[in-house]
Amino acid sequence: MAVCLFTFVDLYSKGLGTLDHILAKGAEFAASQGVSEAEMLEWALIDDMNPLRFQAFVPINFARQWTARAAGVAVPEDIASDLDLAGIRAEIANAKAFLAGLTPEQFEGRDGEALNVTLGNGFSPTMPIGQWLTGFATTNFYFHLSMAYAIMRSRGVQIGKVDLFAGGL
Question: Which of 1, 68, 119, 146 is 20 to 30 A from 35, comparing alpha carbons?
Fold first, then answer.
């Protein structure tokens, strides 16, 4: 199945805009409650779940790294894991700039190309790039974006479904 891989550039860029919006609203709420941004970044849905900081890192890294793989360009390193809120928001802007520099031509004919990636658990599947991007990368991108949203909601941040489209439709 052929997939227009370049469409994911815009999809991820919009999702990153949503992430930035959610983080801004969370910071505003946290400040109104006397909670520091550092504390806010450690919020989690439950104790054994990764905190908001981690939930923000994954969409940023996935947006850059998986589009790079799909475009056949150098894969950017993970962003630093100890960034403060301003640093995370700057990395969102950097990721959006990276995405804006990609061109449709870089993705042409690459959807069926085999790609082998070793995942964090040592599992190393080989699949077509289109399958990686549509099934694995995008699922993870939206899972962690949704977790950031859920963490904010669980703490009382006044956001709703419309905020999930803050980055655009």
Answer: 146
- pTM for the model: 0.95
What span, in angstroms and rounded, lies between the C-alpha atoms of 132 and 123?
A: 14
> Is residue 155 a part of any domain in this protein?
yes
Closest CA relative to residue 15, chosen from 83, 86, 85, 95: 95
User: Which residue segment(s) compose the domain that 12 sits in?
Assistant: 7-165
Beta-strand runs (E) in 63-166:
114-116, 126-128
Structure tokens at 162: 């419309």
**Domain at 84, CATH number:** 1.20.120.450
User: Position 36: which residue type?
Assistant: S
What is the C-alpha separation between 113 and 12, in angstroms, rounded? 21
- pLDDT per position as a tens digit, 88-109: 999 999 999 999 999 999 999 9
In a domain, 147, yes or no: yes
Phi, psi of 127 (to 5 degrees): -145, 165
Sequence-separated (6 or more) residues with CB below 8 Å from residue 2: 111, 112, 130
Residue 162, phi then psi, degrees to nearest 5:
-60, -30
